[in-house]
Write a structure and sequence with these properties.
By secondary structure, the chain is α/β, with parallel strands linked by helices. The protein is built from eleven helices and 17 strands. The structure holds nicotinamide-adenine-dinucleotide and zinc ion (2 copies). The site of nicotinamide-adenine-dinucleotide has 28 residues, from helix 5, strand 11 and helix 8.
């Protein structure tokens, strides 16, 4: 069986590995057939040698759409023929956060596709506790999007949104999904910002009503245009760009929450005097928990989250490496690239 491996930065190659169909499954194991794999920013960092926490070779594939081929004798959550995906987090279960149920910030966290082998191969075995059974009406593209959707589901669970005005900075795949979950959870008005018209158009195609290109319109003017005197009560930073966190801190209503999702490549400047004086709460949001995956699957099947406009390109498994060439040359117009197996 062929497995795609990033053997060192810039080089993706196929290796021949044993096919797990030839071994007996443990009682709680599930054999999946992988149909689609999504590529995200984290994968691109691995490919460019810019991921601080991996050692090569890296076997990618942490967001995927699969079907169940076979199950161990005690598996009850899925049966052969079901569509599924799985949460890629390997957690220790023993550290203080794990013992408090906060395994998404496990002190010994390893993520498949980064610090542990991912699913970039035809057949892949996962344990039942991380499986997500999904509605069979979902496409394998949609199922591969459950992982990034779960990031949005988790971030949007970090603060109360009912009736609030919300700004999401950054309209990449993750910002877009955060904004969609924020809308689904009952926010009043949601404004998404970016410096790319392409990405803002995608946001509108996904049903996010208010957009602002902050390369062309001042942030202060955009929030005035959208919220009038009401200002905004929640901010989500999903760009990793300094101007965004600066704008959110400077303009959010006093006493309100900012949730950080974007990863900053260098430590950002945050005016803590304003955070203090305005009693702003800044919260981190790291990946997701199992219930976020399940909510993502449910809202996708109900059509409350629209991921179709986000799939911008697709490649066959054999052409996996070409996907990265395209990304290198066309970063702005590449949102979710799907690899079809
Ligand atoms: N916390 C988590 O669990 C988690 C999970 C996945 C991704 N992330 C992070 O979330 C961020 C977004 O991920 P993505 O895949 O959507 O990345 P992306 O690079 O596709 O999106 C970032 C967007 O920010 C926009 N941007 C850049 N400068 C801006 C500015 N000054 N104002 C407004 N927008 C600006 C870019 O044009 C781009 O559309 C990344 O930093 C990623 O590492 C965090
Ligand atoms: Zn991802
Ligand atoms: Zn742990």
């Amino acid at each position: 069986m062929k497995q795609a491996q990033v053997i060192k930065p810039g080089i993706l190659q196929f290796a021949e590995i044993p096919d797990p169909t030839s071994r007996v499954l443990e009682d709680h194991e599930i054999l999946l057939q992988i149909h689609t794999i999504g590529i995200c920013g984290g994968d691109i960092h691995v490919m460019h040698g810019q991921h601080p926490f991996v050692t090569y070779p890296v076997i990618q594939g942490h967001e995927y759409g699969a079907s169940v081929l076979a199950v161990g004798k005690h598996v009850t959550k899925v049966k052969p023929g079901d569509k599924a995906t799985a949460r890629p987090q390997l957690v220790c279960g023993n550290c203080p956060p794990c013992r408090k149920g906060r395994y998404n910030v496990c002190q010994n966290l390893r993520v498949q596709g980064f610090q542990a082998p991912g699913a970039a191969q035809k057949h892949f075995v996962v344990p039942e506790d991380r499986i997500i059974r999904v509605d069979n009406s979902l496409s394998y593209d949609d199922i591969a999007m459950i992982e990034p959707c779960a990031v949005g589901a988790h971030a949007s669970s970090k603060t109360d949104l009912e009736g609030k005005n919300v700004v999401v900075t950054g309209a990449g795949t993750i910002g877009n999904l955060v904004a969609q979950f924020v809308q689904a959870r009952g926010a009043k008005r949601v404004l998404i910002t970016d410096v790319s018209d392409f990405r803002l158009r995608k946001a509108q195609e996904c049903g996010i009503k208010y957009i602002a290109n902050t390369a062309q319109e001042r942030f202060e003017d955009a929030i005035k245009r959208v919220f009038g005197d009401e200002l905004f009560q929640v901010g989500f930073e999903v760009s990793g760009a300094q101007p965004c966190i600066t704008d959110l801190v400077a303009n959010i209503e006093k006493g309100c929450d900012i949730v950080l999702v974007g990863v900053f490549s260098k430590p950002p400047f945050v005016d803590l005097a304003v955070v203090d004086e305005h009693e702003i709460t800044i919260k981190g949001s790291m990946m997701y928990k199992h219930e976020d995956f399940e909510l993502a699957g449910r809202l996708l099947s109900k059509g409350e989250i629209n991921v179709k406009p986000l799939v911008t390109q697709r490649f066959s498994f054999d052409d996996f490496a070409e996907a990265y060439q395209l990304i290198d040359n066309n970063r702005e117009i590449c949102m979710k690239i799907i690899i079809n197996l």
